[in-house]
Specification:
Order of helices and strands: EEHEEEEHEHEE
Helix content: 25-40%
Radius of gyration: 25 Å
């Protein structure tokens, strides 16, 4: 704590806030690094294509992620591969408006592992599985109706 003496005869006590600012900056940096990692859930680079219809992820969408090692992520949360059917069954055996599951698999993953996952989720109540792909960079869909986002003209 620093103190200063003025010529007025009184003593002024001022708190030293430098250590508090240092701690706040360290915490800020830690949160800036860890929060995106927590939100990311898993890393999968999906295959690319050209004639793709845009589909932004919505809150109610159920997404199964498969990383390049074949590990499963249900709605960005890591799950054991053995628990896939049980966890998906809990979601889809309830009364739902739709029975669609989006599958985001890494582009370097063996296709047989993707087919195995699709087979397992279909036995758990999923009626439609949609595979997520990315638009090839610097291209756009050649199909006119794919370029129109819902709600725009």
């Amino acid at each position: 704590m620093g103190m200063s003496v003025s010529s007025g005869g009184g003593v002024k006590a001022e708190p030293n806030v430098t250590p508090m600012i240092d701690v706040m900056l360290v915490l800020l940096i830690i949160f800036m690094i860890t929060i995106p990692q927590i939100n990311a859930g898993f890393t999968a680079v999906p295959p690319e294509g050209q004639n793709l219809k845009p589909h932004p992820e919505e809150d109610g969408d159920q997404v199964l992620g498969i990383d390049d090692q074949g590990r499963y992520y249900l709605n960005k949360a890591r799950i054991r591969n053995e628990d896939l059917e049980a966890l998906v069954g809990e979601i889809y055996l309830k009364e739902r408006e739709d029975y669609i599951m989006y599958v985001k698999a890494h582009k370097d993953l063996e296709y047989v592992k993707v087919v195995d996952a699709l087979d397992r989720i279909s036995r758990s109540g999923v009626r439609v599985a949609a595979l997520i792909t990315d638009q090839t960079p610097n291209t756009e869909s050649l199909v006119e109706s794919d370029r129109i986002m819902p709600g725009t003209k």
